[in-house]
Amino acid sequence: MQINLAKSAGFCFGVKRALDVALKAANTKKEICMLGDIVHNEEVVKKIEKTGIKKIKHLKKTKDKTLLIRAHGTSLATFNKAKNCGYEIIDATCPMVCEIHKIVRECERKGYAIIIIGDQKHDEVQGISGQLKNKPIIIDPVKNNSFKKFKKIKKAAVVAQSTQNLQKTLRIVKALKKYTFKLTFFNTICRPTQIKQKEIKIMPLKNDIMIIIGSKSSANTKRLYEISKSLNNSTFWIQSKKGLKPKWFNGTKTVGITAGASTPDSTTKNIIKYIQRINSKRKMLSSRGKYS
């Protein structure tokens, strides 16, 4: 059985940078805290917690604490509140997300209505919304969107959550053009996401089964799974080797594997080793005439 690992599998630049920033901050021996998880992966979160960085729910007055801004970014209101409460701030926001923040602020300043294509409750989308003085229009691609309810907008600037499905985003932008006099689209889907999605449009067609590795809370992993599943019904989404089922590999000659942008290489390597063990056991039982 051949195992084919996607070249783009695993950490993206933004996640690597956020973890480097967090680990460097932890070494300063200051009291570091975060409003939520640094990225959407349980294994990574446990690693960060072991360094002593604490997760908090609310900001409180302080004189000696540091707030680490997570990879997904945060709102200006949270940023300012943290400063007013006395926190030192270390910003681990992905640079590509920071670029989206700059775009929406600048476009709003120029009088554009802001439209965000993304998962409404996702941390990144909330952070983008939180850059603005006026409430943006958020379009969730998962929902059945009826644009007929839109009043004709004079001019609108459209951005996308950095991990959105490019094809779905472009379809929404095309539909929105009917409801705006002037529409400017900024393709803010990050390059690592586009590379991963390009690869996942090919791999399911060349492999008997596909294994997608990543947290169930990971937006970019969800997108990889959705694309793969649409092309190959034998697509399975797992978080660790515990999610693997030996029966998936019955009669399988090729296995394609990819991993979300927040999935550590160690998780992927453990899963590959486990699949290899399943295959070795299958071969052994087959040679004895006990495997069917």
Structure description:
40% of the residues lie in helices and 19% in strands. The model has no long low-confidence stretch (mean pLDDT 93). It is of the alpha/beta class and 292 residues long. Helix 7 (191-200) runs parallel beside helix 9. Helix 6 (166-176) links the parallel strand 8 and strand 9. The longest helix has 23 residues, at 265-287.
Give the key terms.
single chain, about 290 residues, alpha/beta, Cobalt-precorrin-4 Transmethylase, domain 1, 4-stranded parallel beta sheet, 10 helices, 12 strands
CATH class assignment of the largest domain:
Alpha Beta
Q: Which CATH architecture of the largest domain would you pick?
A: 3-Layer(aba) Sandwich
The Rg value, from CA coordinates, equals 22 Å
Q: Given the C-alpha coordinates, what overall shape results?
A: flat
